[in-house]
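Mods, move this if it's the wrong board.
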Amino acid sequence: MVSAKQSKIVAMNKMVKIHCPVCEAKNVQAKVQFAVTQKYLFYVIPLEQVRRTYVHCSACNSRLDSEVHYDEITKYTAEQLVGYIHPGYVITTGIYAVLTLISGAVFPAGFIFFLGGLAICKPRGGWRMVLIWLSLPIQLIATLIFIIYKYTLFVDIIRFFENL
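Not the wrong board. Structure tokens:
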């Protein structure tokens, strides 16, 4: 079992201009942070230190991951940092996007997941949004099947699984 001790902020005194991918503000001041996280095996045996550079947008207060190291980030312009600064990747938004796609065939739960997915995953973008938008046609087709077949198709599917 690998565990991580809480990140320790090592440095936080640099400012840089960025184009924020979350709020889409251009040439906004951002505070640069350098954090070190110690990873342990079984909470006791030290394994490695993970060093990360974060950027805090002053317009929307989002914490963004930076692929550019803390020591070199001030050498870049806002235009050069585009693509190297992005919202932190959180696995929960990916799981939510997959659940949205799967629940697309269930009305109204699928529609509730769809709206939640738009709100939660829009800042992340990418494949998460593709899955969420794919759930909408599935949702519409499922709703039409509900209306046309008056739920009998889904009742037959449920009976099929009950007989297994």
